Amino acid sequence: MVFRKTEEKDCPQVIALYQQAQSYFKEAGIDQWQNGYPNAETLAEDMAGGESYVLVDKETGEVLGTCFVSFEKEPDYDVIYEGSWQETEPYGVVHRVAVVSNRKGQGLAGQMIEYAAAMCLERGITSMRMDTHEDNRSMQRMLVKSGFVYRGIIYLGRDGAKRVAFEKIL
């Protein structure tokens, strides 16, 4: 496996991953990513900021997973309800985690989280934050398995959606 920044050639596969995740959420009755987000515009913005990454099968070149990794302050995390963050700034942020449908449950999301953690440590950052929909139990299980701890509730600035927030101390 190779974890690297998303390249232009990866875009169709990344968009397909977003669409697979959107379908999965819809079928599972999870009201996450059901409003057209994320999409090609989101991906273009992430790539322009150098914050879009892919997990690629070294032999086939297939994009198996994607995520957003940032070391910038996340405004949505400024206010947390029913809890608190353990660490202050700086922290790493991971968003938009998606894995190819036929490889779910094989630890690929966890691998991407570990790569992101290594990127944090290379920068001297010892805290990572993530959030997910309160009904997205599979992501919550993966977060706990990856060493994240539930910290409280946040609300997204783009649409006011409620999310459960997690933090991992590295």
Draw up the topology in text.
Layout: E1 2-5, H1 11-28, H2 40-48, E2 52-56, E3 63-70, E4 92-99, H3 108-122, E5 127-132, H4 137-145, E6 149-155, E7 162-169
Parallel strand pairs: 4-5
Antiparallel strand pairs: 1-2, 2-3, 3-4, 5-7, 6-7
Provide structural commentary.
With 170 residues, the chain is α+β, with helices and mostly antiparallel strands. The chain has a single domain, classed as Aminopeptidase (3-Layer(aba) Sandwich). The chain is 30% helix and 27% strand. It contains 4 helices and 7 strands; from the N terminus they run βααβββαβαββ. It has helices at 11-28, 40-48, 108-122, 137-145; strands spanning 2-5, 52-56, 63-70, 92-99, 127-132, 149-155, 162-169. Strands 1-2-3-4-5-7-6 form a 7-stranded mixed beta sheet. A hairpin with a 6-residue loop joins β6 (149-155) and β7. It is globular.
